[in-house]
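Reply to dn_fold:

You asked what the input looked like. This is it:
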Amino acid sequence: MGKKGNSRDWVFFHFDPGGRNAKPIQRFLRTHDWKLYEDGRMFDMKTDNNEQNPILPEDDNDKSKKNRQSLKKIFGQMK
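and this is what came back:
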């Protein structure tokens, strides 16, 4: 169905629940292994699929820092 195109390694989510008692808008990027919220929280989805232990920028190791930088570049394109 349709034309073949280029696949991406990431998905961008923009969730705006709206309404009077709505929660704030949430935006995040997700790869197979990482999830980065616009507010800077990041999760290693291989080890923390339930998002219990956010990795903040000051807690980055080499691997999370590299992935954070890549995802932040994509966020810049989404605005």
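The CA atoms of residues 55 and 61 lie 9 Å apart.
Hope that clears it up.
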